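User: Just a sanity check before I run the rest of the batch. Below are the structure tokens for the first item. I only need the designed sequence back.
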């Protein structure tokens, strides 16, 4: 059974979850979560990879959701998914006509580049997301109009602490 060690090595080296999807966007929950319907009429809850948008109760939360809806609602998107999150959502980069929608949310100033997950991005994605966030900050677009916007991860932690 010389192939068993090779197979074990290949399985350990392969990503635990990687797939490409295509679907019709049927829902936009917030600025970084959508629902698609695939060709088999199966719904997929999608968390946009590499970004974190304001929560609905935060300043710019609804604006972020509305912007994402304008970009993708009732349109066919392509997705590159790399994992599932703790809520069992597929974590994906969403593309529409070849454009990375995730970075578009950051560029509009309606999401942060989620640096905690930068290691899951390609070097090109890291550069693009960082540059998009810096441009939004420099031009005071979206949430960057606030002097000190609260990142959603800090907002969630504070909310959990006070609940």
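Assistant: Here's the designed sequence for the first item:
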């Amino acid at each position: 059974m010389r192939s068993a060690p090779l197979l074990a090595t290949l399985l350990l080296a392969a990503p635990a979850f990687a797939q490409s999807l295509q679907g019709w966007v049927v829902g936009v929950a917030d600025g970084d979560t959508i629902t698609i319907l695939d060709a088999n009429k199966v719904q997929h809850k999608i968390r946009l990879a590499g970004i974190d948008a304001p929560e609905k109760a935060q300043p710019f939360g609804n604006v972020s959701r509305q912007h994402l809806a304008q970009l993708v609602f009732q349109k066919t998107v392509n997705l590159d998914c790399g994992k599932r999150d703790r809520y069992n959502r597929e974590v994906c980069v969403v593309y529409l006509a070849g454009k990375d929608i995730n970075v578009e949310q950051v560029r509009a100033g309606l999401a942060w580049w989620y640096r905690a997950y930068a290691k899951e991005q390609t070097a090109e994605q890291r550069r693009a997301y960082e540059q998009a966030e810096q441009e939004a900050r420099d031009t005071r677009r979206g949430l960057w109009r606030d002097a000190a916007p609260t990142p959603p991860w800090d907002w969630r932690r504070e909310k959990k602490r006070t609940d």
